[in-house]
Amino acid sequence: MSILRGETLRLRGWAPKAGWLAWRNYDFQLTTYAILLTLFGLAMAYSNSVGSSHVPLTLASPFVRSIMWAVIAVVVLGLTTVFDYKWLRSLAWPLYIINIGLLILTLRFGGGTGEAGSAARWIQVGGFQFQFSELAKIIMVVVFAAYLADHQSTIKSPWTIIGALVILVPPWILVMLQPDLGTSLVLVATITGLLFMSGASLFWLGTLAAAVVAAIPFVWSHMADYQQARLLTLLNPGADPQHAGYQIHQAETAVNAGGCCGKGLTNGNVDLPVGTTDFVWGVLAEELGFIGGMVVLILFALLLWRLLACSWRSNDPFATFIGCGMATMIFFQVFVNVGMVMGLVPVTGIPLPFITYGGASMVSLAAGLGFIQSTNLRRERPEW
User: Fold this and answer.
1) Which of 289, 247, 251 is nearest to 267 (CA)?
2) DSSP assignment, residue 263?
3) How many CB atoms lie within 10 A of CB 158?
4) Secondary structure element (H or E) that encloses residue 111, with its range
5) pLDDT tens by residue, 58-86
6) What is the mean pLDDT of residues 148-167?
7) What is the crossing angle of helices 359-377 and 28-53, to 10°?
8) Torsion of CA 120, 132, 69, 346, to 10 degrees
9) Exposed, middle or buried by CB within 10 Å (0-12, 13-18, 19+), for 232?
10) Is the Cβ–Cβ distance between 102 and 48 less than 8 Å?
11) Scanning 47, 71, 236, 247, which has its CA 20 to 30 A from the CA of 97?
């Protein structure tokens, strides 16, 4: 009788499907929104290539390199989609150890230049730079998802929250030492969002938030001068428009210059520091205008909707937490990146997913989306 019932459900599309039938659960909307956002990113890379060298098709240009990384990202998306995500739960802690090792390796052999002088944020291999902190974001989503899935029965306990913080601290410290304030904030936001969506006690989460607020004076006293300047500039952007407030001033100028329809691709002329990375939203707003910016934000909203839909329709808590973690991570990065260009949040160096130039971010996001698609192919509940 159970066999007949299972066969009936399978014919209706309500049961797990084997082989090629599983591909009927592939979420094409999710992939489509990611591809469209990537195309916007390629357009920005092309514009920045023209603006910097007027030869956008050289191998060293951001545009060509972005295309190369996009091809690699597609391959990674395919590999992680066919990979059975359930293995990730078993591999979560080995991945955590590998993540710690890569971050230590970055500190030891990494290079880069930050506002405080020397920094260690990426490792140079051949002609490519690998920023393992971007990979750390995806690995920590998997680790947090595995941890919360294993502690569902005690999710209301303060010890579960403390355990999550213990897991967070080692990679958070290693990222802060690079220094990379942006990624460290993304890690904190991801675990906070996951704890909230997993049903953790609001009382204990509120207590933790109060403790963080109480620690602000201590944190302020240990911040670097340039980090303090960023926060002070946020409170009064016009106080020092030529130095500490220069980036925000130029970004706001670019946004205002774009108007409704923008100046057109490659026609932006406002001098924007790090226009290919941190302030790419300013370039986009100037060249594509309010309408172009709204299209991108709508695509992000649709992407987040599909991520949450994929996670909520799964009856596997681990798969649900992976989707919620990815949604939290992307939402926070979009909010902060757009917010800092608009002068609403401090400048923190957080990339705009799919839009900011950078192979590590693109490939890591592709891996994360591939894992979500893997959960789609192996879900055991009906579509809705």
Assistant:
1) 289
2) S
3) 15
4) strand 111-114
5) 777 788 888 999 999 999 999 999 998 98
6) 90
7) 170
8) -70
9) middle
10) no
11) 71
pLDDT value at 382 more than 60: no
H helices present in the chain, as ranges: 2-12, 28-53, 62-82, 86-109, 132-150, 158-176, 181-198, 202-214, 216-221, 225-235, 246-258, 280-312, 317-341, 359-377
Tell me which H or E stretch contains 7: helix 2-12
Q: What angle do CA 285, 138, 111 make, to 5 degrees?
A: 75
- List the helix and strand counts (H, then E) for the chain: 14, 3
**Positive or negative: CA dihedral 63, 64, 66, 71:** positive
What does the block give as tokens for 39? 């195309």
Helix, strand, or coil (residue 114): strand
Task: Name the amino acid, one letter, at 291.
Answer: I
Which H/E stretch holds residue 145? helix 132-150
Neighbours of 115 (CB within 10 A): 14
- Per-residue pLDDT at 9 exceeds 50: no
What pLDDT, on the 0 to 100 scale, is given for residue 233?
65
User: Which among 189, 205, 151, 229 is positioned nearest to 324, based on CA atoms?
Assistant: 189
Place of tokens 């969506």: 197
CA atoms of 321 and 317, how far apart (whole Å): 6
Sign of CA dihedral 38, 43, 44, 48: positive
* Beta-bridge partner residues of 113: 118
In this prediction, residue 358 carries a pLDDT of 77
Give the HSE-up count for residue 296: Cα atoms under 13 Å, Cβ half-sphere: 27
Q: What is the DSSP string of 23-70?
A: GGG--HHHHHHHHHHHHHHHHHHHHHHHHHHS-TTSTTSHHHHHHHHH
Rounded CA gap, 70 and 78, in Å? Answer: 12
pLDDT in tens, 262-287: 788 877 777 776 656 678 888 888 88
Closest CA to 357 of 28, 27, 33, 52: 52
Q: What is the pTM of this model?
A: 0.85
Q: Give the Cα separation of 98 and 132 in Å (integer).
A: 11
**What's CA 164's distance to the chain center, in Å?**
20
Q: Which amino acid, 26?
A: Y
